[in-house]
Amino acid sequence: xxxxxxxxxxxxxxxxxxxxxxxxxxxxxxxxxxxxSMFVRRDFVSRYKQTILGPLWxxxxxxxxxxxxxxxxxxxxxxxxxxxxxxxxxxxxxVLWSYFSNCLTGTSQTFIQNAHLFGKxxxxxxxxxxxxxxxxxxxxxxxxxxxxxFRTYFTAAGAEIRFTxxxxxxxxxxxxxxxLGLGFGIIISxxxxxxxxxxxxxxxxxxxxxxxxxxxxxxxxxxxxxxxxALVNPITPIVExxxxxxxxxxxxxxxxxxxxxxxxxxxxxxxxxxxxxxxxTFIDTV
Amino acid sequence: xxxxxxxxxxxxxxxxxxxxxxGTLTRDFERWWARTRGKPDPYSPVTQxxxxxxxxxxxxxxxxxxxxxxxxxxxxxxxxxxxxxSTLLKxxxxxxxxxxxxxxxxxxxxxLLEVGTGFHPELTGRENxxxxxxILGMKKAExxxxxxxxxxxxxxxxxIDTPVKRYSSGMYVRLAFAxxxxxxxxxxxxxxxxxxGDAEFQKKCLGKMGDVAEEGRTVLFVSHNMGSIKQLxxxxxxxxxxxxxxxxxxxxxxxxxxxxxxxxxxxILAHQTYxxxxxxxxxxxxxxxxxxxxxxxxxQNSLEINIKGTVKSSTPVDLELKIKDILGxxxxxxxxxxxxxxxxxxxxxxxxxxxxxxxxxxxxxxxYLIDIEITNPDKQRWASIPNAIRLVVEGVxxxxxxxxxxxxxxxxxxxx
Lengths: 286, 416
What we know:
The structure holds two protein chains of two kinds. By secondary structure, chain A is an all-alpha fold. Chain A is built from twelve helices and one strand. Chain A is 66% helix and 1% strand. In chain A, helix 3 (56-76) packs across helix 4 (86-107) and helix 4 packs parallel to helix 8. Chain B is an alpha/beta fold. In chain B, 26% of the residues lie in helices and 34% in strands. Chain B has ten helices and 19 strands. The longest helix of chain B is centred in the middle third of the chain and has 16 residues, at 199-214. Classes of the chains: A mainly alpha, B alpha/beta.
């Protein structure tokens, strides 16, 4: 075999035991973009086939959640809502939070739930979590429309709410949410191939995390002593900016958003590196 | 060397046997904690000195395998179960990574380790065609262009807008294979997916793969069916225990495999699953061989079956044979006791009995399995040895020198 013939240079694919850690294979993911759209479609169609109300569930969920929060935290516990109508306050929080938590829990199952598929055919494994993040976007869009509907109703009823310029940052906020959900999700999914018990931690951890995030209370109501906890949390600026933009009340600054952005990038890069490392041989250990 | 499309260089794959991680975080933590204090690992399966020895906890599924595949070649990969065929295909199709070594590939690889991977039961046939195509690496436009052809090939036109969960398993498989067959990679890797579907469809699939090979594309084909390998491939790689035992021309390769199988296979008696406590077999010979692989040609068309053993009481015994195809479909039955009422009487102590069974000379090429039962007809079962014999039938040659095969759908016998 001639190892030095010139034609050795133009191999299309070289399979080796390990890739360099910085080789993120993102080009490969782009090549499979059609597959991403097929998975998104599949998720959406299969989720609502043979359900009575279909996508209506997407609307019922946040309404019920917000109602319960309004009664429990607003009327009984009387937590501050920054002077905003409680229903809108809680809805804005839950709509955003549920996007993040859906992304996180959905992607954290990537390897385990698709073990069979991954064992039979190759495609960039990252396609799977990305498609989950995108299909959750549809859910988010529907729930966001619901929120805007309620907002319009409350404005008409004379509530004191206003749009601010921060509303324009919505795409950025969604991107941050998606990136954080994806990043944390794939880190967890990579670890769960070895440690199944992490799965229990995820659902439990996500609900705990929600209480550490100003979903049910505004940052302004946290005592000065504890405020750092809320500010370390990368989700806090996102929720607060969203409220500032669409309801006119919230603690915002570019620095805090920037912090979330850097946090997201770091988590995402760490996630992709670990994920790529695990995807190569996880089928042997799952 | 200018048209080498796959170059496999010193490929090895090592699997850990038994415990890999302990499976839960708390245990791994304990393990780590013990190690950092210099204590022995509490979950270690065997005493380990941090250098793993081959054969203890690891197994080399592939061991320094090197070969090349040329453009347009159809390469058959053969070997017994556990020889490393599947591992090799998994590495080539990038499902798992090798432990060491390199594979270099030119062109797009399409691999079919299973048909219907990723089919979703709730989606319609149409949606699944697109989904499955995308999973196999096709662009949406490519699938759309070939959609009508795919549907026509599968023969499920009428049900294309029905969710596949309502399909019969046959329809499901046909649609799945149709998608795969229209995959247009430069290199096609196929595992034994042809074992599905009815005979006619299998024929269609083999034909399609032959077309692919003739179009100048490269095919890597793994199968236990020597007939289809022979039909499709020109070259073969014969794997045994993770190493390349032989590579070269396909007929030579297959002969080698069958010969080696003969030496390697177990004894007929090892297949015994039941015997009465008063009845013990010590040896079974077929044509003076203990081996379960029995070659069979037109020249030599009888089986001489000899059994030896001990029995505690006096009893009549009879030999019953059930001849089946590889999939277990019964083809023929032999029982002298049932047919003619002729049974042998054996007395307490040891016995040594022989039967000569005439088999038809017009059997078709293929492998057949034979179950052996020792009975007192309709009264007592003394011993069962399912799949005792693997009859490797050379079969009848046609005028143009080919063998007609059982699997081609022609069945067991050829009539004059």
